[in-house]
């Protein structure tokens, strides 16, 4: 069985194009399964992003400001939303989740059906201030198909974008000599929450996938130099950076953070070689233009919301509460679905935590001065960044931080750890192949468990039967179909990590070649008399 899986993995990873196509198809199957298995509007603020995407696709980049009363985390206020002109049924989207969100025992079957009125009216969206690039990519299917089918197609457009970015990260990691170890970092970074958001119409999905690509390509450029691959790796950094920067202003901070940490890990003399490449300056110019455009957009679209935060929510109190929520934010980066009301099962968290802990420990053991500083710095940043960010904004916006906001940056932890260990550990000094096999199998099983657990919550509620045969709500095609698709894709996508590493493959080829030569020139033995 193991040899058969290895042969399949070797075939999938044989050429970059084949590997990219295979990885794209499997990541798309995962993200698309989330697209189908989540009720419309069943993820954080998706109704606002649906409306924003449909409006941008129709050329409505801006709109009048409309003050809308809202209550968030028990704090009342008026949110500055953007008015757009869309078919009347879009105005029903904000009500789709109200009957079951934050009510874990209630299935999604209570959601009212969407109407069919095509009459154009003004509807509002809280996402109207966001840069239009992501919404142009995801909103065009709404021009082709009306109603729920168009919304599902919009989700699939987002899934395709995120899958393309993740597939490029897989190809980049596979270029390392110790391919299996580098790929393990990518799969550990692609948490169930990352795949879940990738299947929704939400900028977080694109941010996270772009973050994985940026980190993987940057570390490959500076830690595993190869002049033949440098231009294409710089292109991947540039493409990931353009997506990251053009989604939300935070993307610029995450990109700058990835560059700073990657420079700490560079091999001696590599930076000089990179600076002499024309491709670097071309992509730097493009990223500079994108940064200027993103900052101008953000400056021209301020948030004029008025939140009645209590006087007791001082900066000190916000810092204390945020620090106390660190474990919750980490859980949210691994898997907290629905409207943050459906945590992944404990099995998923324990497996992912275990893999991340082992990888980080190995990175610290094998790393040297700057590498150890970078890993420890990342651990500190995962705790400190939310504290600083929310402390600065709490008096104006309230306690709004979520773990997924940091995920485009935090994915750097497993990637730095595995690539440090891959480049520093001696040959034959650690059973990497065995560790990789157990780790990717555990991650695949934990990922599938999170999907089934969440689908069950939507189908029958958390108090319903473990196997939702009598589902109150079912996705298109039924829950059994998407559970099977997701489970198969979760195990198949990690197969490239089981392929022979480049040094092992080269050694095997030399052995076969030497054996063939010995067979051709074997001395002749006289026949027995």
Compact overview of the structure:
The protein is of the alpha+beta class and 529 residues long.
Characterization of the model:
With 529 residues, the chain is an alpha+beta fold. The chain is built from 21 helices and six strands. Strands 1, 2, 3 and 4 form a four-stranded antiparallel sheet that branches. A two-stranded antiparallel sheet has the order 5-6. The longest helix is centred in the last third of the chain and has 29 residues. It is globular, with a radius of gyration of 25 Å. The N terminus and C terminus are likely disordered.
List its salient traits.
globular; 6 strands; four-stranded antiparallel beta sheet; 21 helices; single chain; two-stranded antiparallel ribbon
Give the CA-based shape: globular
SSE ordering: HHHEEEHHHHHHHHHEHHEEHHHHHHH
The secondary-structure class comes to alpha+beta
> Uncertain runs with pLDDT below 50, 5 residues or more?
1-9, 503-529
Strand content: 5-15%
Largest sheet: 4 strands, antiparallel
Spell out the blueprint of helices and strands.
Layout: H1 2-12, H2 16-37, H3 46-57, E1 65-72, E2 75-87, E3 120-125, H4 133-139, H5 147-174, H6 179-189, H7 192-198, H8 203-223, H9 230-245, H10 250-264, H11 270-275, H12 278-300, E4 306-307, H13 315-324, H14 326-335, E5 336-337, E6 342-343, H15 346-366, H16 369-397, H17 407-410, H18 412-424, H19 432-460, H20 479-493, H21 502-520
Antiparallel strand pairs: 1-2, 2-3, 2-4, 5-6
